[in-house]
Amino acid sequence: MSETLYPSLRSSPNPFAIRFAHRRSPKITILTSERSLLKNLGSWLGAITLARNKPILHRMLDCKELLYQGFETGRLIAVTPFVAKILEGAKNSVVFRPPNPWIMGLLSVFRSLYDVEDLKMNIKFEIEVLCKNLNVKLDEIEERDDLSQR
User: Fold this and answer.
1) How far is C-alpha 125 from the geometric centre of its chain's CA atoms?
2) Does the predicted model carry a pTM greater than 0.85?
3) In whole angstroms, what is the distance from residue 33 CA to residue 42 CA?
4) What's the sign of the alpha-carbon dihedral 80, 86, 89, 91?
5) What band does 122 get if pLDDT is binned at 50, 70 and 90?
6) What residue ranges do the domains of the chain occupy?
C-alpha cells in the first residue's frame, strides 16, 4: 500500500478499524479466519502507532477493558492475540518500551490472565511470545487483582 495513495491509513488509526476491533461477532471464537484478520489488524495498529511512538488514545481503544471484556464473555481466544499484536509494535518504540507505565499495566493484566486456571494453551502461548518480544520475563511482571473482582 502506497503512502501517497493512502496517507490517512499510514498516519493515524482508522476509526473503522477500531470499530472492527470492538466487534461482537459470535463467529470470532469459532472461525480462525476471523481471528487471523483481527490479529493482523492488531499488528497494523501497533505498527502505525506504538512503533512510531504515537499513543493509542483511551477514547479510541481501551485495550485493558477489551481484555477484561474478553475474559468475561469468553472471547479471550480472539482478544488476547489482537491486543498482544498491538503491543508487539512497542518493541521498536523508544517511548512505549517497558518500563512504560501504560505497557506495564497491560502486561500485568496479561500476567493475571496467564495465571487463570484452565486457560487455553494458545492464549498462554500468545502471552509468552509477547513477553519474549518485549524482552520482559513473565515472572517479573506484577500481577493485578482486578481480574478476580470482575
Assistant:
1) 14
2) no
3) 14
4) negative
5) very high
6) 7-140
Identify residue 36 by its one-letter amino acid code.
Answer: S
List CB contacts of 31: < 8 A, sequence separation 6 or more.
none
**Residues ≥6 apart with Cβ < 8 Å to 19:** none
What are the backbone dihedrals phi and psi of residue 74, each rounded to the nearest 5 degrees, phi first?
A: 80, 25
3-state secondary structure the chain: CCCCCCHHHHHCCCHHHHHHHCCCCHHHHCCHHHHHHHHHHHHHHHHHCHHHCCCCCCCCCCHHHHHHHHHHHCCHHHHHHHHHHHHHHHHHCCCCCCCCHHHHHHHHHHHHHHCCCCCCHHHHHHHHHHHHHCCCCHHHCCCCCCCCCC
**Cβ 115 vs Cβ 73: under 8 Å:** no
Instruction: Kindly give the interhelix angle for 121-133 and 76-88, rounded to the nearest 10 degrees.
Output: 10
CATH assignment of 7-140?
1.25.40.180
Alpha-carbon distance of 65 to 8, in angstroms, equals 27
C-beta neighbour count of 136 within 10 angstroms: 19
C-alpha cell read off for 12: 493515524
Residue 121 has pLDDT above 60, yes or no: yes
